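Data card: per-record layout.
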Amino acid sequence: MNNPKKQMQEVALLYYEKNLTQSEIAKIMNLSRQTVSKLLGDAIKEKIVEIKIHDPEITCADLEKEICRKFGVKNAIVCGVSSDNSDLCRLVTVKKAGAYVKELIESGNKRIGISWGNTIKMLIDEFCEMQTQNNTVFPLFGATDSEEAYYLSNELARSFADKIDAKLKYAWFPYKPDNEADSTLFKKTSYYKKLASLWDSIDIAIVGIGNKDIIKTFGEIFGYNEKSISAIGDISTHFFDADGNFVELYENTLCASKENLKNAKETIAVACGKEKAQAIIGALKTGTVDTLITDEYTARHII
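The structure for this 303-residue chain is written out next.
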C-alpha cells in the first residue's frame, strides 16, 4: 500500500541520517530522482523533517556554560570553527586566546608566567605587538636540554616579553638538576629566589595542556618510572591522572608549584584537538585551571 508520508520519512532517513545521494535513494526505492527530490521537499512541508539553523555563537555559549557547570571552572571560552581541521582549530583558538590575554595585560602591572608547548608557541607567534607598562614575563620552570623551540621555556618567555614590551626574568637554572644536592644549591642562588618570588605572586599563568606525548618526551629526557603509566597529561610540567590527581613523576624539579598555579589570580589553559580531550578533562579536574580556551569540536569531545 502506497503511503506518501511513510515514503517521505524513509527518503528523509536515507538522505539526512544515512547521507545517501538522491540518485542512490532513487535506486533503492525504485523511484525517479525527481520524485525523491519532491518527497524531501514535502517532508519539510509536512514537518516530518525539521531543519534548525543554530547560531554558532549561541551554540558556543551553551558549550561554555556546560564546561563550567560540569568541571567547575570559572570561565570557558569556546571558539566557533567552520571545520574540525586541526590546524584551523588551533589557529582560531590561539587567536581567541591572544585577544583574551591582550585585554588582561594592556592595563599593565601584571606578573605573567609562561608555560611551553606547540600551542603556547603558536599563541606567542600570532600575538600582536603592543606597548604595555610594567608587565613582567617569566618562565614557569627551569630550562631543559631539549632542542625543540616549543620546549625552550626561556626563549618562549623572551619572545612574549618582546611582543608586549615587558620586563623579562630568565630561569638561569635547569628544570631538573642531577640530584637533590644540586637542587638545593640552585635554590640558594639569587636567580632562583627572584623567580620563586614571582611564582609566589602570579597574576596570569598561560599554560598548555599536554597529553601522552609529553609524558613520552619527558621519559626520553629524564627517564620513565612506574608512575608514568597512570599519567595522562601535564599542566606546566605537573602530571596528572584521568581523575585529576597529580602524579609526581620526578623529584628535585625547579618549577612553579601546583599551589603557585592554583593561587595565581588567573591560570589560563589553551588547548584543542580531540587527541587531547582526555588530558583536558583530567586537567580541569585538578582544580588548577581558571579559564579554558578551546574550539567547539574539542569542547564537544570533552563534554
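Known properties of this structure: The CA atoms of residues 140 and 199 lie 7 Å apart. DSSP finds 13 helices and ten strands in the chain.

See the next section for split statistics.
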